Amino acid sequence: MTKEKQNEFLFGKENYYLLIAGVATILLGYILISGGGSDDPNLFTREIFSFRRITLAPIVCLIGFGIVMFAIMKKPKE
């Protein structure tokens, strides 16, 4: 291997930006899904079944995973 070939990154700059954006989107989805529990285990709250936790957060997580897969598959510009 030549010295130049060893110093090359696997992905391009744009790929890394997309990868970071995807991970941030996944983290946002996990933040949206958290909470809703009660401090008292004998008390039931219906807040755990809110739209944010049941629908929005999983969609945001899936979008984040899609962005990460796209970032990995995207061919870097030469």
Give a count of the beta strands, DSSP E runs of length 2 or more: 0
Instruction: Give the helices and strands as they follow along the chain.
Output: HHH
Tell me the fraction of residues in β-strands, as a range: under 5%
Please report the distance between the alpha carbons of the first and last residues.
Answer: 19 Å
What does this structure look like?
This protein is an all-alpha fold and 78 residues long. The chain has one domain (11-73). Helices cover 62% and strands 0% of the residues. It has helices at residues 3-6, 13-33, 51-73. The radius of gyration is 19 Å and the shape is elongated.
In a few lines, what is going on in this structure?
The chain has one domain. Helix content is 62%, strand content 0%.
Which features characterize this protein?
single chain; 78 residues; mainly alpha; 62% helix; elongated
Topology:
Layout: H1 3-6, H2 13-33, H3 51-73
Helix pairs in contact: 2-3
